[in-house]
């Protein structure tokens, strides 16, 4: 390797660079040299020796504001040039790796393959000054030598165009965004329960009917879903890609070395298909159709025939080695009720999971017979999956190693870190998202290979991918918001060599990157600039330490009196400070004189129970156990996102906790701070009962309250937080018991979520 690197660097002179070279994703090696680098001027040209270099050439012409004529290598001498060379001695860097050497004489770009040349130009894009487009005469590039090679073969981003349709022009932009970050797979989720988005010539109903849905006011698109049929007066929503458009996009992606991976969901997530072809829904013993659960009847040969017809056209349109068949979240209820599926399971001694494998394995065989490979979501591992199938994993980080045990190659779209439909900050200003929490730094720090995993299983990890499910992304603008800037962190995970993460360095590199995004007019989320107000309670002194942070570099100004902060009048945050009384903290972040968003605020309530001992009789479930019982008295309110690790979630159990003070104190009010999202099964308590004790042993009820709300309680995705408080005549007590009965709803699990018990 050393000999090789020495060879690559040969010919580059030591000169001083003009600006620091900051590249995302971080290259394998960067050496900045002293002195002036290369001047791109009117006489500069591009020198090539093979037409497979043209994608890299077009990219260079696009990013360079000066006109760069192209010449063939054998056309004689040149003065100043970007020289592209295919160089098989670099094949240890793979055909995607490259060497880039900017010297006063020329810019030498070498790779064993055309992909590497293309990626070298993407690196050059970041070496060009941020405001290069304004430079009309000359552009100077720093003297630098870069050797680079990706860590993973599969570096993907997915886009769900079923829940919300995205136009062709945006898909091309999306592909450009991927290329810019050296990503190479665009996973196109073309089919899901509420929209079929690709023209299938042998089955036009799939788009005539399946691509359109009836718009229902006050309902989310997937609620009360109904396909729209010609003649319906009601407004419709939808769209689909014609095969011509698909070809255009596949070609567009190919020029950027991006594979388009099509996904056709089977055997579940197919409500639209069942509305087009009700005969594919399972039937009971009397031949009556069961409910449309979006699952193909596994015993009906017509299900297989339809999907084979579809896959035939998909194979013709997409040159991708892999075809994604979905396979996630398949409800097996209909199969268990269906007379024909039951008979099939009986005859073959299948469990419902094995019936799913039967369905999936059929298409594994089918795709193999056409020279392609099947990939599906990890649920296809249930039952007896064909050994040749490849897995796309979407579970949490802790399940990766276990899912590799069955020996299938796997792409990690790890749900705990790479779901870009999850929130990027805990601010109340974030637009509605799916629920989880994956801020930039968490994404950046994700290490895909589990610690301690042996070589053999680690080798099964083909790479990483981020998923963008668009339930809450109605348009391209919102997709960009969720993708940026996290795509930069993803590219580092996917490309950078293992063990070289450096958050501080990444933060600095994001400065010019953000400017580049801005110059491309990308709708970048400001989330990484939103001040995060953190509390830490000292249980001995009962003082609260306040820390203010932004993920990306910015100044923070704050107030403690509830007034709006501004950079002229308010205090600049320099280090954590303590509070010994309640305060409303408001903070803004400011960068280059610009306020980066609305103020963030958080109430610090220093009450009598802060730091007291707590015993909790109703245990929260593990996923929602925050800091355990201490959560209830840590003075840190959870805010409006119940999944953020600051809330205790208690399932199907009446809440019960006891607060024990160091010594008897006088109390006249107790509050319990709760959150509700009925659509997610989280309800406010059905009441509150308080009892106090002077000795910590015998308790006496002092007050209770019943939540007399209207029932049944409507299910919505609205989120509410509320403190339920009861006042009473002051009592001196050593401990207080708080009980809150859980709402009871037939046939449903019900959560109570609590973040603080407040004593005054
Ligand atoms: C689960 S991840 C799904 C999608 C949803 C997503 C929302 C997967 C294979 N299936 O249908 O859109 O959660 O985060």
Show the helix and strand layout.
Elements: H1 2-9, E1 29-32, E2 38-40, E3 44-48, H2 54-63, E4 70-72, E5 80-86, E6 98-102, E7 106-111, H3 114-127, E8 139-141, E9 144-148, E10 154-160, H4 168-180, E11 185-189, E12 191-192, E13 195-196, H5 205-208, E14 212-214, E15 236-238, H6 243-254, E16 259-266, H7 271-276, H8 301-317, E17 322-326, H9 333-337, H10 339-348, H11 352-369, E18 373-377, E19 390-393, H12 400-404, E20 410-412, H13 440-444, H14 455-458, E21 461-466, H15 476-483, H16 486-495, H17 503-519, E22 532-537, E23 544-549, E24 555-559, E25 571-572, E26 577-579, E27 583-591, E28 594-595, E29 600-604, E30 613-616, E31 648-651, E32 655-676, E33 687-693, E34 700-706, E35 720-740, E36 751-759
Parallel strand pairs: 3-4, 3-5, 5-7, 10-11, 10-21, 11-16, 16-17, 17-18, 18-19, 19-20, 20-21
Antiparallel strand pairs: 1-9, 2-8, 6-7, 6-9, 12-13, 14-15, 22-23, 23-26, 24-25, 24-27, 27-28, 27-29, 30-32, 31-36, 32-35, 32-36, 33-34, 33-35
The structure holds ligand TNX.
Ligand TNX binds at residues 328-329, 377, 394, 419, 421, 434, 469, 471.
